[in-house]
Amino acid sequence: MPKRIYFHQRHLLSLLHKHQHCRRVIQQIHSHFLTINAQENTGLLQYWNSIIKHYSLSMFPQEAVFLFKHLKKQSDPIFFDSFTYSYLIKACANFKQPNVGNQLHCLSIKVGFVYHVYVQTALVNMYVDCGCLIEAKKVFDEMPERNLVTWNVLVTGFIKWGKIEFAKAVFDTMPEKNVVTWTGLIDGYTRVSRFHEALALFRRMFVREGIKPTEVTLLAIFPAIWNIGFLEFCQMVHAYGEKSGLNASDIRVMNCLIDAYAKIGSIDSARRVFEEINDEKRNLVSWTSIICGFAMHGMAIEASNCYKRMEDEGVKPNQITFLSVLNACSHSGLVDKGLEFYGKMLNQCGIEPNIKHYGTLIDMLGRAGRLEEAEKMALEIPSEIANVVVWRTLLGACSFHGNVEIGERVTRKIMEMETEYGGDFVLMSNIFSGAGRFVDSERVRSVMDEQNALKVPGFALV
């Protein structure tokens, strides 16, 4: 190959790595490769592999397969290697085409990659990503050689599709496990709300096996900690993060600590963690987490002051930040303050409210007895996001304050949207009874029976 062509190809390859996420650049470089006047294919494979790789990892992975088919049809075809097939199989996983992946599976066997651990691992991963778990397990079982990555792919694949018992069975038979394996299973148990088992696995990994958790492991275990409310475990993880340097190196760990302490009930600890974060590292999630924590504990003044600090530091709030502040104002009865924040969200920040914002505002106004304002706001909700829950919230407020007139209008609105839930009828019946309108109360109960509306049975917690 002439040196000029060689150096031109190297330059194109460097551009490819530099712009690996830009489809247009990849296509331009692809075109350049096609126009290079090379009479032989020697040395070209690595360049085509690079193109195929970048297509497979892009937003249009099917183009990797199209290119492969085009190159196979050439009069002087290229003999592709294990990297080519691994990238192509990954492309099939990314655009969720197990049928095409199955064809590549057959082709890889024909060309002799049945014993190649990387190609076979890519096949397991492809079948798992596409939800073909039986096929994935079959490829796995037939592999003459497996490495740790192969085992981890199968374990995390079962977890992804909620097959936690299958994942645990594979985990128990693994010849060796690393922190990725343990973290995957811990995350799996957390995702299916088996929090005690997730904590037990974490303790077994750390104490008995002596495997040090990474920041990803800590992020996986936090939901189990706060769902159980295990303060001592949270403190232990906090201490490990300090000693290992994970707290200082990864802001996500600190943000999760704030969230965990707040949800467990230790808002003072959450506040201390927040204040320990350097101003340079503190991000929007940090501010939103502590504001949300204050809101959970009914500390509206603290949440409001924290929002002001965030504003002063030039951090722009998002929908979740405002939802947290509005919740704090709602639970503390600071209606005017809440409406002020709502105005800021609309006018200063240009953030469109979603149904959760509307629901919180209606709940806030309803608690304060400002039912006319709450009704007006409910009527202003755009039809594309409106739901029956906000109207039920308002009906509950009407019941609490004994407002029959608005209660009737709200009930009619609910009946336009849904008639199967008996609780709506019961609540309106109680509103009539509270106002001494017993005939109307019985009429509502009769309508409920005629429509066979669902009555949710009560139960006792012992």
Automatic annotation (TrEMBL):
Q: Which UniProt keywords apply?
A: Repeat
Gene3D superfamilies, per the entry: Tetratricopeptide repeat domain (1.25.40.10)
Per the record, the domain of life is Eukaryota
- UniProt organism field: Penstemon smallii
For this protein, the record's InterPro entries field holds: E_motif, PPR_At4g14850-like_plant, PPR_rpt, TPR-like_helical_dom_sf
Instruction: State the Pfam families in the record.
Output: E_motif, PPR, PPR_1, PPR_2
Task: Write out the ranges of the repeats annotated as PPR.
Answer: 147-177, 178-213, 250-280, 283-317, 318-353
Query: Which protein are we looking at?
Result: Pentatricopeptide repeat-containing protein
Among its keywords, does the record have Repeat? yes
